[in-house]
Amino acid sequence: MEALILLILLVMFGPPVLFLIVGLVKRSRNQDSAKVFFILGAVWLIVGGGICASLLMS
Fold this sequence. Notes:
Transmembrane segments: 6-25, 37-57
Mean pLDDT: 86
Largest sheet: none
Distance between the termini: 14 Å
Strand content: under 5%
Number of helices: 2
Keywords: Membrane, Transmembrane, Transmembrane helix
Shape: elongated
Structural class: mainly alpha
Oligomer: single chain
């Protein structure tokens, strides 16, 4: 059961952290593409957090 919860949490927090790192790297070269990665990370965190929280609560 713990492995399933860990997998759900990795799906919820993994990609937003990756998008944040990519956005921070790209920020010095191209700020417009960095903004896209920051927005993708925020949207993934909101949507993924809602879906994963609903799976954990059921």
